Amino acid sequence: MIPERYAPVTYALFRIIFGYVFFIFGLQKMFGWFGGPAAEFGTLQWFAGAVETGGGLLVMLGLFTRVAAFISSGEMAVAYFYVHVMQLGAPPMGPGFPQGFFIPQMNRGVDAMLFCFAFLYIATRGPGIWSLDQMMGKKGR
Q1: What local confidence, expressed as pLDDT, does residue 1 receive?
Q2: What is the DSSP string of 100-123?
Q3: Residue 71: what are its φ and ψ, rounded to 5°?
Q4: How far apart are alpha carbons 101 and 86 in whole angstroms?
Q5: Nearest residue to 112 (alpha-carbon basis) of 77, 71, 65
Q6: Sequence spans of domains, the chain
Q7: Are 55 and 66 contacting, i.e. CB atoms less than 8 angstroms apart?
Q8: Could you read off the pLDDT tens digit of each residue along the chain, which spans 141 residues?
Q9: CA–CA gap between residue 7 and residue 16 (Å, rounded)
Q10: Amino acid 19: pLDDT
Q11: Is 36 in contact with 29 (CB distance < 8 Å)?
Q12: Assign residue 75 a region: left if phi > 0, alpha if psi is -120 to 50, beta otherwise?
């Protein structure tokens, strides 16, 4: 069992790693880096990439952490329901209860769901140690 005294360090690593991975997803969408196609400027996917790039960077650095994490969480909730449930998971037979609504593996929404709740947790907990918010004296932000 890990002692409670390591909780601040573990949380800081959690925030930094989730922010970093989200940042990389954003760069992939916006610029086509790391094996993904670049989204066309002004499209919904491009705006999602902008939120992911900016939000991921801010969360990773711990700057405006609560706001950045809350917006990122919301973007992932929209992504899950709009893209993964309603478009990818919809049955081919017309309207009805979408296939894979409660099973993210079926609608390929695992990443969106995990990011959504990780960022919601970060938004409620705040920046923690090793953050620019803490260095600037914004302890609870």
Answers
A1: 84
A2: TTT-HHHHT-HHHHHHHHHHHHHH
A3: -65, -40
A4: 9
A5: 77
A6: 4-135
A7: no
A8: 889 999 999 999 999 999 999 999 999 999 999 988 999 999 999 999 999 999 999 999 999 999 999 999 999 999 998 888 887 655 554 444 566 677 888 888 999 999 999 999 999 999 999 999 999 987 655
A9: 14
A10: 98
A11: yes
A12: alpha
**Cβ distance 84 to 109 under 8 Å?**
yes
Confidence (pTM): 0.89
Q: What is the rounded distance in angstroms from the CA atom of residue 54 to the CA atom of residue 60?
A: 10
Instruction: Supply 120's token pair.
Output: 């919601």
Compute the distance between CA of residue 21 and CA of residue 23 in angstroms, rounded to an integer.
Answer: 5
Q: Could you report how far apart the first and last alpha carbons of the chain are, in Å?
A: 30
State the Cα–Cα distance between residues 68 and 8, nearest whole angstrom.
20
Largest CA distance in the chain: 56
